[in-house]
C-alpha cells in the first residue's frame, strides 16, 4: 500500500482576529479555529456567504494578515513563524488573484510592465529573458501578444482577468488563491475563465484555492469543497460527495438555492433571517439561529468535528460540524 501524498498546504486551528474597537479590548474572530488540507495539483473550493471569513482566510495564508493563533504549513514549513527572507521565497510559490483586476493591476503600468514586476521583484531569470517569459505567460492564458502595451482600462473584463492570471502564473507558483475571481464577469465570460483555470491546472500542475459565494461555480471546478459560515468551517467533502449527499443543513440550504432549469424542481429552502454579526456570534453552533433542523443542544454546545465514513473514500474524506452527526 502506497503512502498518501503529503498535502501542499495544511491549515491547522487557524484564528484570525481584528480589533473591534479603538481600544483593542474587543476582537472580531473572522476565521475561528479552521483546519483543512490542499493537495498538490488539486482545486479546493471554498464557499460561503459574504462575511463568512473567506477573504480573511486567503489573506492570512499569504500573510497579508497575521493570524492570532494556528499554523499555516506549506510543504510542512509554518508560514506564520517564518522570517521575512523565508516568507519572501514562499510567496513566490503562493500567488493571489483578486476579484477585480481593474483594481489589482496598476492603472499606470502596461500589461507587460505588470508581468515583469514579479519577475524583477523575485529576480527570476536573466533580465534579458524576462520579456520572453512574459510573452509566454500571455500565450498560456490565451491573450494575444498585442495586449502587452495596453493598460488595464483598455481591456475587457475577461481579458483583464486573464492578464491577472498570467501575472500570478509567471513566477511558476505551486498554489494560486483565486478570491471571487469570476464573480464580476458575465456568465459567458465566466465560463471561459473557468475552462481556462481547468486548463492551467492540467498544463502546469498548479493547485488552486478557489473562493466563491456561488456553489454553481464551485461545482464546475473543485475536487474538494469546504463550506464556511461566520468564521467556522461547517463541512468539507469531495465535490462529488458534497453535491450528492451534503451532511450539514447549511450546505443543503446553499445547494437548494442554486437555480435549477427544471420547472418541476422543488422550491429552494429559504433560510430565515440574516447571518448574525461576527461581533456577537451565537453561542453553541454558529448556524443555530437560522437552522431549520435546530435542536436544544445546538443553542449551547459547539458541535465537534465528525468524520463521516463512506465506503468509497477514506475516513477523513468527509467532515462535518453538526449535532445531527454527533451521536
Description:
By secondary structure, this protein is of the alpha/beta class. It has helices at 54-61, 84-92, 101-104, 111-121, 130-140, 157-169, 187-204, 215-221, 239-245, 249-256, and strands spanning 9-19, 27-38, 43-47, 69-74, 77-78, 94-97, 175-179, 207-212, 224-229, 232-238, 305-307, 319-321. The protein is globular. The protein starts with 8 loop residues before the first strand and ends in a 6-residue tail after the last strand.
What is the level 1 CATH name of one domain? Alpha Beta
Strand order of the largest sheet: 6-7-8-3-9-10-12-11
First-to-last CA distance: 32 Å
CATH architecture of one domain: 3-Layer(aba) Sandwich
Strand and helix layout:
Blueprint: E1 9-19, E2 27-38, E3 43-47, H1 54-61, E4 69-74, E5 77-78, H2 84-92, E6 94-97, H3 101-104, H4 111-121, H5 130-140, H6 157-169, E7 175-179, H7 187-204, E8 207-212, H8 215-221, E9 224-229, E10 232-238, H9 239-245, H10 249-256, E11 305-307, E12 319-321
Parallel strand pairs: 3-8, 3-9, 6-7, 7-8
Antiparallel strand pairs: 1-2, 1-4, 4-5, 9-10, 10-12, 11-12
In a few lines, what is going on in this structure?
With 327 residues, this protein is α/β, with parallel strands linked by helices.
What labels would you give this structure?
4-stranded antiparallel sheet; alpha/beta; globular; 12 strands; 327 residues; 8-stranded mixed sheet; Rossmann fold
